[in-house]
Amino acid sequence: MVLKMGELKIPDSQIERTGYIELPEHCDVPGHEKLNMIHFKGEIICPRCKLEKNNQEFAYEKTREHFDNTAEGRRLFFYQNSIVHNRAILDKGIRDYINKNDEESHIKKKANTTPREVIEDNRNVFMYGSAGTGKSHLLVGILKNINEISTEKRCLFVSVPKLLGNIKKSFNDPRELKGEAYYMKLLSDTDILGLDDIGAELSMNTTKQASDFTINTLYNILNAREGKSTLFTSNLTIEQLSRLMDERIISRIKTNVIYMDFNEISDKREIAYKLKQ
Predict the structure, then answer these.
(1) For position 232, what pLDDT does the model report?
(2) In the beta sheet, which residues pair with residue 127?
(3) What is the mean pLDDT of each run of 10 residues along the chain (277 residues)?
(4) Is residue 38 located within the same domain as residue 77?
C-alpha cells in the first residue's frame, strides 16, 4: 500500500520504519533553510522548529514549577518574569503616586479599590490618557496589591513594545530559549496580566493600522486568556484604538472592563524632575 501526498508517493514500509515522512519542502525560518520538512503524526513540521518549541516549553514549565509553590514564590514570579524596559518601574506602588488635585485623588482612590474588584469579579481594566500621567506606575501598584490581597494569583507586568521586540529578536536566534512559544505560554497561563502601552506604535492623529504581527500576537494572547483578568494601559482611548486594531482585540478588552481616565492628570515625570531639583 502507498500513501499519496500530492505528487509524492510514500510506501507504508517507510512510515512504519521511521514513524515519519521526509518531504521535499524546506523550512522558511532563517537558519533552517537546509532542513527538509517532515510529516509526523498528522502534522507537517520542521524538526528544528519543533525541537526549539519543546525546549522553550520545558524552560517555561521549570520556571512555573519553581514559582507556584509558595506565596513568596508568586511575588518573586512578578519581579523576575515581568517584561520591562527599566526594572525601576517594578518598585512603584499606589502609595507613592503623587496626587495634587481632586482628579488625581480620585484616580488614586480608584486604583486602591480596583485590586479587589479584579480578584472578586474577574474584571478587566483599561487605563488611558496622555503619556507621563502615571498609568504604568499605578498599573504596577494595582498588580502588587493584588499579590498582597490574594497570594493565589500570579501577576505579571508586561511592556507590550518590549514583548514584541523580544519575540521578533528570537526569530533570528534559534538558540534563544525564550522565544514566541515561551512568551505565549507564560502570558496565557498568568492569572492576572498587565499589558502596558498597548498601541504604542500608533499615533492618535493617524489612520495607520497596527501591523499584522502586533495584531496576531495580541489576539493570540487575549484569546488564550479568555476568562482571565487582563489590565491595559494606553495613550489612546478605546474609541481611537478601535479604529486602528482588530475588533476581536477591542471586544476582549471591553469585556467586563473598568475604565480609568487619566486625561485630566498632570505630567508626573515633570513633577518628579522638579522634586529632584
Answers:
(1) 99
(2) 233, 260
(3) 44 52 76 72 77 72 62 84 96 94 96 97 97 97 93 92 95 84 95 96 66 94 97 97 94 98 84 50
(4) no
Sign of the dihedral through C-alpha 39, 41, 42, 43: negative
What pLDDT is attached to residue 94?
A: 97
228 conformational bin, left if phi > 0, alpha if psi -120 to 50, beta if neither: beta
Given the DSSP bridges, would you call strands 155-159 and 192-196 parallel, antiparallel or unpaired? parallel
| Residues 21 and 157 grouped into a single domain | no
119 within a domain of the structure (yes/no): yes
Q: Are residues 38 and 118 in the same domain?
A: no
Residue 119 to residues 80, 122, 165: CA-CA distances in angstroms?
Answer: 22, 6, 30
**Total count of domains within the chain:** 2
Tell me, yes or no, whether 241 and 113 share the same domain.
yes
Q: At what angle do helices 160-171 and 212-224 cross, to 10 degrees?
A: 110
Would you say 225 and 255 are in contact if contact means Cβ atoms under 8 Å apart?
A: no
- Give the CATH number for residue 174: 3.40.50.300
Look up the pTM and report it: 0.74
Residues 118 and 210 in one domain: yes
d(CA 114, CA 102): 18
The reported pLDDT for the residue numbered 60 is 61
CA angle 48, 51, 55 (to 5 degrees): 140
pLDDT of residue 248: 95
CA 223 vs. chain centroid, Å, equals 11
Residue-number span of the structural domain to which 163 is assigned: 71-276
> In this structure, are 231 and 161 located in the same domain?
yes
Q: Is 114 within 8 Å of 233 (Cβ atoms)?
A: no
